[in-house]
Amino acid sequence: QVQLVESGGGLVQPGGSLRLSCTTSGITFSMYGVGWYRQAPGKQRELVATISGLGNTNYADSVKGRFTISRDNAKNTVYLQMNSLKPEDTALYYCNVWNLSWGRNYWGQGTQVTVSS
Description:
It is a single chain. The chain is built from no helices and eleven strands. By secondary structure, the protein is mainly β.
């Protein structure tokens, strides 16, 4: 059974930092691309950042220079370090893993990030 468990969300003041984690089980993690997405109330889910199995990264323009995605294949975990947080970063953040060759795509349940003074 595939499981993705996100953690690290919470309430933070503007300018603050949070580190999200997504720990997976039931998959060969190193063979999957991994991404973080977010969805704010009333808005569509959007890409935040992705990292391939080889470590290639991609970021939404809105988070470039502030967020860093990384992965630890030994721990089956992906991280999202979020710095200089803004109120517009407030959303439910989801972890996603995929392997196009195998036709596999899995989502976590999400972790809430709220940026407010």
